[in-house]
Design brief:
Layout: H1 16-19, E1 21-24, E2 27-30, E3 32-34, E4 37-44, E5 67-69, E6 100-106, E7 115-121, H2 139-142, E8 148-152, H3 157-161, H4 178-193, E9 199-209, H5 211-219, E10 231-235, E11 243-244, H6 245-262, H7 274-283, H8 286-303, E12 313-314, H9 323-329, E13 337-342, H10 360-368, H11 372-381, H12 388-411, E14 417-422, H13 427-431, H14 442-445, H15 452-457, H16 463-481, E15 499-503, E16 508-511, H17 515-524, E17 558-563, E18 567-572
Parallel strand pairs: 2-5, 7-8, 7-9, 9-10, 10-13, 11-12, 13-14, 14-15
Antiparallel strand pairs: 1-2, 3-4, 4-6, 6-8, 15-16, 17-18
Helix pairs in contact: 6-8, 9-12, 11-17
């Protein structure tokens, strides 16, 4: 039976204006036509997380009166323009009231119902980015006439990806994993509302790149996301970048100390009650929280090599186990998965975004955590590890490639998996030593090669090759989302042969590419969960007492705690 938007029950919308007016959770929204697409932007999917809702799980959308215009994007999450990752420009509206979703559909007449849905999660290190980015424009996918495309904003930085739940009190509750909870809330909104836009809530593909890829692999292990998507694509995910509550609590305490220092407050979080710390977090402006998180982000790569402080937390509740453990044991959602990385993920991470374990000191700290027998294998797999190229590859493989391979290994035991590697790099990128680095596929995938950056890096050659590779990738993503078989030339992945589609000048399939590196990493991290080097002497670990009165000096002695699977954190209590 044909179903029409609730605004016009029982009949087909008579004209384009009616087709653009949709009833969603909260009220009516009116979109706009842009060429051959209909677009609705800035639709709230949760209540504004402001005031008493700061640091709280997303709450239901308040109702509004009349018709809400949905031609413009909503405000983006508070972020720094020139932070560790480049944020949106100063003229772009931003703030804590950022939880909005955008929908794009073909403007075909008559409207087709039950199109497959593709939901994209933007990247940016969980500290920058938004659905306004070029990847928020899904015209390259929607223009095929096959899918409905959705993008959304979620909380970033300290407001979304530091875990302050240890400072929660009955009077001032604080939840964990707020950015991840936002993502689940957005998917719930899609499930409840996308049929009104012509989408099929039972055929949703969630996909994302970088931090968005991490979101995808983490959602696969999040129990409350069950049934909200039928397929998943993880591009350049760092799937291991999810950390135990103990480490997240340590980062939260260090962050509060930074905030106190910036405010001229000589107290430390360790000496304060939960209520006092919560009061500091509540009264601090969002922009000041961003600035404090930049301090923590800058320190973390050297203080805790191989980790990233703005990440989901294994809280034992919303995210009960580490995603790698969920994949290994079959507890991850058993949906078909495409997962892959780019040829040289680590070469991009220089200068301001030097966050990976690529320096001599960071690599040494990593190797000190390795079983003795595995160190030689790693050194042999990356000859000249102190050099720029070898160290970049070591770091990129640790963060992105190797854990993605293990996700493919584990998940293929329970659900269909296809694995890829993107090798296409225009001539200029090869000349400057970046090659097919982190994120390079995105402009081609989204058919945005005329944007300033790809125009620049294809200026001296490789433009058509790059564009064609992106089109092949996009076509395959569409085939996957619409439940059509992928080409026979791209076989399914299994642990037995590890067949991987290498996207290059001509695509080909390789079995267990870079198997020597994989075996070296398996001798170090068989489960691909991250290592946690000892806490730096300058970093005081979590120490708040149940009564909220802080530490006692007599309790300041070293202890050893088990974290995850055979990982140890050396801290202080």
């Amino acid at each position: 039976m044909q179903q029409w938007p609730a605004r016009f029950p029982g009949r087909r919308p008579r004209n384009e204006a009616e087709r653009l007016t949709i009833k969603v959770t909260g009220g009516l929204v009116r979109g706009v036509r842009e060429g051959s697409t209909f677009v609705w932007r800035g639709i709230p999917y949760a209540a504004p997380p402001v005031g008493p809702l700061r640091f709280r799980a997303p709450q239901p959308v308040p109702r509004w009166n009349g018709v809400r215009e949905a031609a413009s994007f909503g405000p983006v999450a508070t972020q720094a323009y020139r932070g560790q990752f480049r944020g949106v420009g100063p003229g772009v509206p931003s703030g804590e009231d950022c939880l909005s979703v955008n929908v794009m559909t073909p403007a075909a007449t008559p409207a087709r119902r039950n199109r497959p849905v593709m939901v994209f999660i933007h990247g940016g290190g969980y500290s920058a980015g938004s659905s306004r980015d070029f990847s928020g424009d899904g015209a390259g996918f929607v223009g095929s006439g096959q899918v409905v495309y959705v993008s959304f904003n979620y909380r970033l930085g300290a407001l979304g990806y530091l875990d302050f739940s240890r400072y929660s009190t009955p009077e001032r509750p604080i939840e964990s994993n707020l950015g991840l909870r936002d993502q689940v809330a957005a998917l719930r909104w899609v499930h409840a509302n996308i049929r009104a836009f012509g989408g099929d809530p039972g055929n949703v593909t969630v996909f994302g790149e970088s931090a968005g890829g991490n979101a995808v692999t983490t959602l696969l292990a999040t129990p409350s996301a069950k049934g909200l998507f039928a397929r998943a694509i993880a591009q350049s995910s760092p799937p291991s970048s999810v950390y135990p509550a103990e480490l997240a609590a340590r980062w939260a305490e260090e962050f509060v100390d930074v905030v106190l220092h910036e405010q001229g407050d000589r107290r430390s979080a360790a000496t304060m009650s939960r209520a006092e710390v919560a009061a500091v977090l509540d009264r601090t402006r969002a922009t000041d929280l961003v600035n404090a998180s930049l301090v923590l982000q800058t320190r973390t790569p050297d203080d805790y090599p191989g980790t990233f402080c703005l990440s989901p937390t294994v809280d034992g509740d919303f995210l009960p186990v580490h995603p790698m453990e969920a994949f290994r044991t079959g507890r991850a959602h058993r949906v078909p998965l495409i997962i892959g990385t780019n040829d040289r993920e680590g070469s991009l991470f220089r200068g301001r975004i030097d966050i990976l374990p690529r320096s001599v000191g960071r690599i040494r700290a990593m190797l000190e955590q390795a079983p003795p027998d595995s160190r030689r294998a790693l050194l042999e797999a990356y000859p000249g590890l102190s050099s720029g190229r070898a160290s970049s590859d070591f770091a990129g493989d640790y963060a992105f490639w190797y854990p993605s391979v293990k996700v493919a290994d584990f998940h293929s035991r329970f659900a269909p998996v296809h694995c890829y590697r993107f090798d296409v790099a225009p001539r200029l990128l090869r000349m400057i030593g970046l090659d097919a680095t982190h994120g390079v596929e995105m402009y081609a995938l989204f058919d945005q090669i005329d944007a300033p950056l790809p125009r620049a890096f294809t200026a001296i050659g490789g433009r058509q090759l790059y564009s064609r590779a992106g089109k092949r990738m996009r076509d395959n993503w569409l085939r996957f989302a619409t439940r059509r078989p992928l080409p026979e030339s791209w076989p399914a992945y299994t642990e037995k042969d590890r067949l991987t589609n290498i996207i290059g000048e001509v695509d080909y399939v390789a079995s267990d590419p870079r198997g020597d590196r994989r075996r070296a990493w398996e001798s170090f991290l068989p489960l691909a969960e991250p290592v946690y080097p000892p806490a730096p002497s300058s970093a005081r670990p979590p120490s708040i007492r149940p009564d909220g009165e802080g530490d006692d000096a007599a309790d300041d002695y070293p202890v050893e705690r088990r974290v995850g699977h055979d990982r140890r954190v050396r801290g202080r209590r």
